[in-house]
């Protein structure tokens, strides 16, 4: 365990008993400030991710999160185009990405509820964890709810394309022979998972920026809490 993490873990023991946390020997931070700082960091990451992805071309126009054709279809894309199915392939990619955009646009209430449910122990883990501990908190606390919310939105979009039905039938058979990952054998589940992956990736991106430069966040409490790390 790195020395800084050991010091912070020890500091939080003192924090729990006295109401103060001394991060790496810097000025004391009260329970209230620590909690407020972590909640604001969570909210900042959530708003950034939803705002950037939950809009037209939020996924399609971002190479970091753009959803490709699933598995073997991506490898067979040139063949699809050779047989005159390029338009259908493009339609499927566009539909998948727009479905993800529509789904992520509905994520903020779920992420906000996750922030409200954060405990003191959660705050401790986030502050003493690595550069993606904010992201991992959201992944642990909201993935199930996000999947339930996203799936019907994705289904509504992909059901309009015949190629999506063809993919599900073909992929289902391929999965039974171990040629396709079972979790990718249904296009709606595939897009739902990719939408969540993109959401968490963008939250992680904002978290790294915050930890690298708390001052740039423009918030006194974020500067105080994360600057102490």
Helix-strand blueprint:
Elements: H1 3-18, E1 20-22, E2 28-30, H2 31-53, H3 71-75, H4 77-82, H5 86-104, H6 108-116, H7 120-128, H8 133-158, H9 162-176, H10 187-212, H11 220-227
Antiparallel strand pairs: 1-2
Protein traits:
mainly alpha, two-stranded antiparallel ribbon, 11 helices, elongated
Average pLDDT score: 77
Q: What integer value in Å does the Rg equal?
A: 21 Å
How much of the sequence lies in strands comes to under 5%
The secondary-structure element order is: HEEHHHHHHHHHH
Estimated helix fraction? over 70%
Number of continuous helical runs: 11
| Major beta sheet summary | 2 strands, antiparallel
**Widest β-sheet, arrangement of strands:** 1-2
Distance between the termini: 16 Å
Low-confidence residue ranges: 3-27
Total beta strands:
2
The coarse overall form would be elongated
**Global structural class:** mainly alpha
Describe the structure in your own words.
By secondary structure, the chain is mostly helical. 71% of the residues lie in helices and 3% in strands. The chain has eleven helices and two strands. It has helices spanning 3-18, 31-53, 71-75, 77-82, 86-104, 108-116, 120-128, 133-158, 162-176, 187-212, 220-227; strands at residues 20-22, 28-30. Strands 1-2 form a two-stranded antiparallel sheet. Strand 1 and strand 2 (28-30) form a beta hairpin. Helix 2 (31-53) packs across helix 7 and helix 6 runs antiparallel to helix 8 (133-158). The longest helix is centred in the middle third of the chain and has 26 residues, at 133-158. The protein is elongated, with a radius of gyration of 21 Å. Residues 3-27 have low confidence and may be disordered.
């Amino acid at each position: 365990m790195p020395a800084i993490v050991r010091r912070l873990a020890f500091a939080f023991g003192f924090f729990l008993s006295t109401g103060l946390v001394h991060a790496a020997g810097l000025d004391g931070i009260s329970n209230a400030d620590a909690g407020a700082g972590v909640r604001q960091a969570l909210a900042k990451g959530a708003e950034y991710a939803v705002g950037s992805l939950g809009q037209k071309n939020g996924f399609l126009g971002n190479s970091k999160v753009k959803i490709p054709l699933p598995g073997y279809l991506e490898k067979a894309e040139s063949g699809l185009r050779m047989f005159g199915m390029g338009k259908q392939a493009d339609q499927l990619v566009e539909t998948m990405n727009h479905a993800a955009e529509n789904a992520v646009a509905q994520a903020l209430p779920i992420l906000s509820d996750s922030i409200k449910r954060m405990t003191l122990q959660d705050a401790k883990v986030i502050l003493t964890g690595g550069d993606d501990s904010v992201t991992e908190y959201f992944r642990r606390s909201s993935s199930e709810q996000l999947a339930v919310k996203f799936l019907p939105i994705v289904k509504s979009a992909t059901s309009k394309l015949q190629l999506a039905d063809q993919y599900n039938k073909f992929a289902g058979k391929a999965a039974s022979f171990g040629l396709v990952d079972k979790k990718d054998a249904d296009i709606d589940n595939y897009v739902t998972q990719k939408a969540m992956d993109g959401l968490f990736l963008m939250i992680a991106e904002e978290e790294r920026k915050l930890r690298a430069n708390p001052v740039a966040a423009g918030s006194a409490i974020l500067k105080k809490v994360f600057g102490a790390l």
